[in-house]
């Protein structure tokens, strides 16, 4: 234990995060041990789901904060290759929930799916703690690929389904639902922020095994909370029909087979790229075929949906530099004042916690005055802010000499504008998908939305690889040049989107949109905070235009 007199900024940040975590745990223990069936006006099952999700996000984001450093410093991949692996991994994490949600809806039920996913995730995070000697010739690297595979498939079973159970605790017309998801969303972001700080600190100061081990312990605690809290879930999330043992075993076997498939795919990232390209083209063709079968207004709404979905790969491709190239850039070129680079990954979820209620209130305030931007205009604003964030860092770097470290305030600036951009696009987009899609195509459209998100994460790896230049190693000048380029591209595209927003809004035909036209009963997607990047989506940010 280091003497407190010798603590630096990183030590104090971790200490504060640990205190915050302890306070949440104490409050949670108090809530679930009350004799009353409800605490704070909500069923105690909500708090079980809160802490299960908090620990899952703790483990996922704690591991994510370290991954790019683990690839470059332990397995000795160059910067470009590390970014490609990172992008392939995160993209697969955001594809598998589509299958996991489908299997839960049809067979397993959400509770069993979450439980199985939590088991796979716990195994995956603990496998990450097997370091070996390092380098790509170390046979232990196969355990590393296996760990990533378990996490990918485990996320697929857990990610979407746990938020569905939150909605099932309440009648559909219950006025407490938005409040429940606000509480649940806090668990997402508290876990993301605290996990990043604690696991990142341990991994970069004491050793990889400590950081990944902390993530594994977090996931194990989430699993224990979920198992012990089963009675408080009031029978929600059970299979839609009696589940035969053979069918249940088959579902688990599919999960294990998925681990084996992912073990291969994650090692051949180019295959992932081609699969996404082919599947994306097939999905687009299928959606277009279905769209042309519809009447004029529903058909044009589908065209508006496709326009919004098409912006996803660009936005997330740039946004996800946070865990890849920007993480490396922070480590090497930012004046961190002794704080491990991975800890700065906590800035986004902290901003989300602080700013999401502000945006929720802002949209409401503007809406009452007839000034709220349309959905496509909000997308354009999100892209402009995203691009401007990169330029803030580029301009900040120009204030010091090429040999000097860049002041950390500019790093806070890029995360600020990326977060405000996210709040303009992600929750608004989820709401638009659910509102505009015809009922019989609701699941397909939501799947297309998440598929495009996954595509954006793969694009992020390609952009990150470009910062490595021809020899695969990042340079300050080369990275800033890439950031400047993609920053201006995002701003220009955003402005174009704002200019044509009125035309796209006309395609949405909001004046003729009725409850019978859209998929407003889509299980989970309509109810959940939607969490494409882990920074939770505040349910009250749904547009009302």
TrEMBL record:
Residues 525-536 have a biased composition (Low complexity). Keywords: Cell membrane, Membrane, Peptide transport, Protein transport, Transmembrane, Transmembrane helix, Transport. The keyword Chaperone does not apply. The keyword Transport applies. It comes from the Bacteria. InterPro entries: Dipep/tripep_permease (IPR005279), MFS_dom (IPR020846), MFS_trans_sf (IPR036259), MFS_Transporters (IPR050171), POT_fam (IPR000109), PTR2_symporter_CS (IPR018456). It is found in: Cell membrane. Residues 518-545 are annotated as: Disordered. The chain crosses the membrane at residues 12-33, 45-72, 84-104, 113-130, 142-162, 183-202, 208-228, 249-266, 272-289, 301-319, 350-367, 379-398, 404-429, 441-466, 486-504. It is a multi-pass membrane protein. Its main location: membrane. Residues 45-505 form the Major facilitator superfamily (MFS) profile domain. PANTHER family: PROTON-DEPENDENT OLIGOPEPTIDE FAMILY TRANSPORT PROTEIN, RESISTANCE PROTEIN MDTM, PUTATIVE-RELATED-RELATED. This is Peptide MFS transporter.
């Amino acid at each position: 234990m280091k003497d407190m007199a010798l603590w630096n900024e990183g030590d104090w940040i971790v200490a504060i995060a640990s205190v915050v975590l302890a306070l949440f745990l104490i409050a949670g223990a108090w809530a679930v041990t009350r004799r009353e069936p409800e605490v704070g006006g909500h069923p105690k099952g909500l708090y079980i789901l809160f802490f299960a999700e908090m620990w899952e996000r703790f483990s996922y984001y704690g591991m994510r904060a370290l991954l790019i450093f683990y690839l470059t410093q332990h397995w000795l991949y160059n910067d470009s290759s590390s970014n490609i692996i990172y992008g392939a991994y995160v993209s697969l994490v955001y594809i598998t929930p589509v299958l996991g949600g489908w299997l839960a809806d049809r067979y397993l039920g959400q509770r069993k799916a979450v439980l199985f996913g939590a088991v796979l995730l716990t195994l995956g995070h603990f496998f990450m703690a097997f370091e070996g000697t390092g380098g790509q010739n170390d046979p232990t690297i196969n355990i590393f690929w296996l760990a990533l595979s378990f996490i990918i498939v485990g996320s697929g079973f857990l990610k979407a389904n746990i938020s569905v159970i939150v909605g099932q605790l309440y009648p559909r017309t219950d006025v407490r639902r938005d409040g429940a998801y606000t509480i649940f969303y806090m668990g997402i972001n508290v876990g993301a922020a605290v996990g990043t700080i604690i696991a990142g600190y341990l991994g970069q100061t004491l050793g990889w095994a400590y950081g990944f081990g902390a993530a594994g312990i977090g996931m194990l605690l989430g699993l224990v909370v979920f198992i012990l809290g089963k009675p408080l879930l009031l029978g929600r999330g059970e299979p839609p029909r009696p589940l035969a043992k053979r069918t249940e075993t088959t579902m688990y076997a599919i999960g294990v087979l998925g681990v084996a498939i992912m073990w291969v795919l994650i090692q051949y990232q180019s295959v992932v790229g081609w699969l996404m390209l082919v599947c994306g083209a097939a999905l687009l063709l299928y959606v277009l075929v279905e769209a042309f079968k519809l009447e004029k207004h529903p058909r044009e709404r589908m065209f508006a949906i496709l326009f919004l979905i098409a912006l996803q790969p660009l936005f997330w491709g740039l946004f996800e530099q946070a865990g890849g190239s920007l993480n490396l850039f922070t480590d090497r070129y930012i004046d961190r004042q002794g704080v491990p680079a991975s800890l700065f990954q906590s800035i986004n979820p902290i901003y989300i916690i602080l700013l999401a209620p502000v945006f929720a209130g802002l949209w409401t305030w503007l809406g009452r005055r007839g000034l709220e931007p349309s959905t496509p205009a909000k997308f354009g604003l999100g892209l402009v802010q995203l691009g401007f964030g990169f330029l803030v860092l580029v301009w900040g770097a120009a204030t010091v000499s090429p040999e000097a470290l860049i002041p950390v305030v500019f790093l806070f600036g890029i995360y600020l504008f990326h977060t405000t951009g996210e709040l303009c696009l992600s929750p608004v987009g989820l709401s638009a998908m659910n509102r505009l899609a015809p009922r019989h195509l609701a699941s397909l459209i939501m799947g297309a939305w998440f598929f495009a998100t996954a595509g954006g994460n793969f694009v992020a790896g390609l952009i990150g690889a470009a910062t490595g230049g021809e020899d695969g190693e990042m340079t300050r000048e080369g990275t800033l040049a890439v950031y400047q380029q993609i920053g201006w591209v995002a701003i220009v595209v955003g402005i174009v989107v704002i200019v044509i927003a009125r035309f796209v809004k006309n395609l949405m035909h909001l004046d003729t949109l009725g409850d019978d036209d859209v998929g407003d009963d889509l299980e989970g997607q309509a109810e959940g905070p939607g969490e494409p990047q882990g920074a939770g989506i505040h349910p009250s940010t749904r547009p009302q235009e």
